[in-house]
Design goal:
Length: 519
Amino acid sequence: MSVQELEKEQAPKQGGFGLVAWVRWAWRTLTSMKTALILLFLLALGSVPGSLVPQRSVEPDKVAQIYEQSPALAEWYDRLQLFEVFSSTWFAAVYLLLFTSLIGCIIPRTATYLRELRRKPPAAPKNLSRLPHSASFESELSVDEAAAKLRKLRFRVVTGDGWVSAEKGFLRETGNLFFHVALLGVLLAIGAGSLFGYRGNVLVVEGDGFANTVAAYDRFMPGNQVSAESLEPFSFTLSEFKVAYQLAGDKRGQALDYSAHLKVSDTPTSAPRDYELKVNEPLEVDGTQLYLIGNGYAPVFKVTDGKGQVAFEGPVPCLIEQKTTMTSGCVVKVPDAQPSQLGFLLRFLPTSVPLTNGDYASAFPGELNPEVKLLGAFSGDLGVRSGKPQSVYELAEPEVLKKLKPLVMGTAAPKPLAVGQSVELPDGLGKLEFTGVKEWITLQTSYDPGRFPALLAAGTAVVAIALSLMIRRRRVFVRISGGRVEVGGLTRTEGSAAGFAEEFSDIVKVLSAGERDVR
């Protein structure tokens, strides 16, 4: 065998970077502190669109407005799941990765922490003057006396032949560990809320009631483990809703206070109780919270058909078109009218005033001079019996609307109707009467069993991070030989040496109390 062949055979073989090595590398990367912080930042960053973009679960009417005003933008929002951020695929992926990263970070940290708790402080070095902090003095101090004094300062102490070793500051790592456990607790609480909690939205008009059943909601979003029997059986009636507005000044028309007066029955058999519902002051019944999130007007109309029969009578919730004046758009569908179905497009003006061009507008959001302007009246098949779902805020789909017969349109519409006034439809097809004004409120019902655990975990995280930032690990060593005492100290926390200098000086003073020649 040649020398070259021998060297080639004896040379170390390079190991391949196989599947197992890649898996180990991926796991170490995922469970590192750097990755956990990045994922936590991404989770916070991902929550931003949930605050800026209207969410279907909270503000479905605003989502509908975006679809009307910017269909292309709304389509992109929907593709990126920005209307449902907190239930989106990408948000769940970041959440699960952070969850896994924290578990992988906590387990080895816990094992290391337990080993550190069982480990005794190391023996004192022979030359204490080489430590970052050192001092010496003449004294008859014994090893047992030095150990007793350090124990009074809450040090863990180990003694040997002529030396004392003491250590303190384990609460720093305790706080660090509890901080990670608390973060995991927050994630678990959020997950429990998603599985066993539910949210729902409902619109209620003055005088109407609501019972906490699935069928009563306009939109209901249950967790995976929620059934119809899971809902608390409470109910209420909206007696009155009031809004206080600024009457003068630069902020005239700005809402000052919202107040909904409810009569609440906590159970089907309990007596009703009065409750005043306000913004950020939810009604709570056995853990279920009811929030006031919106309001508007619901003019009351009476429609008489061509045969003289009352085909429709009641309040019609209107969508707000202009928030500053509460100008609202209303749609009235009368599928039971004879001899043909009727539909109306109207605009509600809470404080109607005439304009110089002959039109009318609202000058104030409060109900000072309520009037209704008829924008259009139609007859024909509205398509409500076609089996296709329709919005109550739209008269009909475009293809159906083209087939309707216009009865009153645009400039042909009469002067706005005041309460008690009516308008006759042409060809004897009926009459529309404006009979009164009510208000509606939108409510969000929320049941989240993880709410209190999340609060507890968040509070623990704050206390724990304070401990890990304020407490430093440090060691103190004492050597006693021939009436001379040497003291040395060092910190095990980076960047805390300056803070330890004063503490070390105090420790030396305690050890040398009543002695001489301290330096």
